[in-house]
Structures are given as structure tokens and as C-alpha cells.
Specification:
Keywords: Membrane, Transmembrane
Number of helices: 8
Oligomer: single chain
Distance between the termini: 106 Å
Helix content: 55-70%
Organism: Rhodopirellula maiorica SM1
Structural class: mainly alpha
Protein name: Transmembrane protein
Mean pLDDT: 86
Order of helices and strands: HHHHHHHH
Radius of gyration: 30 Å
Amino acid sequence: DLDGMSSTQAIEAYLDDARQTLAKLAGQSVQAAEAMDLLAAIYLTRGDDRTLPSSTSLCLRRAALQGQPQNATLASNLGMQLARVGMLTEAQRVLEHSVSLQNDPATQSALASVLRQLGQYQQAEKVSVELQAANYPSTQFPKGIRIPEVIQLTPAEFAAVSSPVMQSSAASPRIPA
């Protein structure tokens, strides 16, 4: 019943109903959920104010994730969009969910940024350290592998231990006169 609702309330009610209906479809098919995510991206790039691109794309991405809650990519895309529009608390929750499903550097970086914006500096630092450790693991070699020792030689020392590269002058090419 739309009587007595403002236009904003009516749009929110419509989008909520659409999300619930689309979530059922997304729950039946991963491809449908991925298509919703793609359609959301298209809405955002078109920039047509008459179609409410941000609200519509959020509706589509929420429905996709509601239908496929174990899909880390869908969660990451929704979380990053939420962060871009300033819905930081929901973005944090969704990005944390995505990272719990799959450690993705872009998602972890977005999560650290959201945490900093929320003033959760210690938690942001922890995520950043985990991200750096995942991207730059320690360079420990397995036991039992012999690593040769590197020795620096002067040119004279190198010449003394190396076999000659050039043969005797008898084998050298002659220059025509």
C-alpha cells in the first residue's frame, strides 16, 4: 500500500520487493546472480539519473548476494560499491564476509580502507599486515636444499680461475690486406 508514502519511501519499498523477488531467482542459479551483478555494473556506468543507477545497482547486488551468499566475488563487488557510496558499516560487514570466503588482495585493501574511515585503526592495520604477508610471503627455503655461497672476485682473480675464452693467436682470424 503506497498511500501516505513519500516518493522516497515508495522507491525504497519497490526496490526492497524487487530485491526479495530477485534473490529467489539468484538462489536458483549462479548465472542469474552473476548476471544481476553485471547488470548492476552496467547501471552504474550508464549514469542515467532517471534509472536511479546507484539504488538499482545496490538492489541487484544485494539480491545476487542474498541468493548466493557463499560467492566471494558478489560479496566483494557489493562491499566495494557500498564503500563508494558511504555506507561504511554495511560495507565493512559485506567485505569481511567476502574475505572470510576468499582472501582477495583488492577486497582486503578495500576492507582496510573502510576500517580506517570508520576509525578502527588497529583492525585496519591488522588487515593491512595480513594483506602484505599474503602478497610477500617469507622467503624461507625448504630444509635440505643446498644454497651455494656467492663469492665476489676481482677481474684478475676471475681470469686466474677461468679457462681462456680466446685461443692462441694462430687460430685468430686474419684481416685481409
